Automatic annotation (TrEMBL):
Pfam families for this protein: ABC_tran
GO cellular component, one term: plasma membrane
Domain ABC transporter: 3-237
Entry protein name: ATP-binding cassette domain-containing protein
Statement: the UniProt record of this protein carries the keyword Metal-binding: no
Keyword check for Cell membrane: yes
Superkingdom of the organism of origin: Bacteria
Length: 255
């Protein structure tokens, strides 16, 4: 199990945000976290990354409590890409991706051959080798998001957490990135927050639904992305159907 979440409660500024959440995530594949704004999705992801201390309960990663791990050790296990990450002006794609090697490098020493090879592999995986010397702020939205994914890959963790990785991307770039994420899910455990439920249905191996900081459901997409659990999650009705080719479509019933 990459994650075992046990009776997890999180408070932010004294306000309860997560309430006794309890679930397991199996190894490998893609897990999507869904829920309305304010349901606790980002808080859940940050708790899984070890960035928020539990008020009660625990987060175990591969059987170990992440609260007891040193930040450097945790960063060798779990990589997290926050929403709307920004690079300093003028930073090149290669320089950005190289920052993913920080958990593995000795302080104040330059990158070694293994680090440079990891950066090269990450750039190749996202198809940005030809843009490695370009400033990140000169890239298109889709290219920029791929550069950040490459940083995460260069970190060489078995578990990757992504906060709304498709946010602000147009449809062609969303399609491109979804294909990349599917490839990542073949060799790693990927947990990501998604708003598009049809993409979640077509991309995820399992889906976790939250409402007001409480777990509503967790399971395969066809079980969670169904009318009853979706109404319990969002408070509105949904139509869940399939196209002639069998691909699922999930839409609010009012549309």
């Amino acid at each position: 199990m990459p994650f075992e979440i046990r009776d997890l409660s999180i408070h932010l500024g004294g306000t309860p945000v997560l309430h006794g959440v309890d679930f397991d995530l199996s190894s490998g594949g893609i897990t999507g976290i869904i829920g309305a704004n304010g349901s606790g999705k980002t808080t859940m992801l940050r708790a899984m990354a070890g960035l928020l201390p539990p008020e009660t309960g625990s987060v175990l990663h591969q059987g170990q409590d992440i609260a007891a791990m040193a930040p450097r050790a945790r960063a060798r296990r779990i990589a997290m890409l926050p929403q709307s990450a920004a690079a300093p002006p003028g930073l090149t794609v290669r320089q950005l991706v190289a920052r993913g090697r920080t958990p593995w490098m000795r302080p104040f020493l330059p990158m070694g051959p293994a680090d440079r090879a990891a950066v090269d592999r990450a750039l190749h995986a996202v198809g940005l080798e030809d843009l490695a010397t370009r400033p990140v702020d000169s890239l298109s939205g889709g290219q920029r998001q791929r550069a950040w994914i490459a940083l995460v890959l260069a970190q060489e963790c078995d578990t990757i957490l992504l906060d709304e990785p498709l946010n602000f991307l147009d449809l062609p770039h969303q399609t491109e990135l979804v294909g990349l994420l599917r490839d990542l899910g073949k060799t790693r455990s990927v947990v990501m927050i998604l708003h598009d439920l049809t993409i979640a249905a077509r991309t995820c191996d399992q889906v976790l639904a939250l409402r007001e900081g409480r777990l509503v459901a967790i399971g395969p997409p066809d079980a969670v992305l169904a009318p009853v659990p979706l109404r319990e999650t969002f408070g509105i009705g949904f139509e869940c159907s399939a196209l002639p080719d069998g691909k699922p479509v999930v839409l609010p019933a009012a549309l």
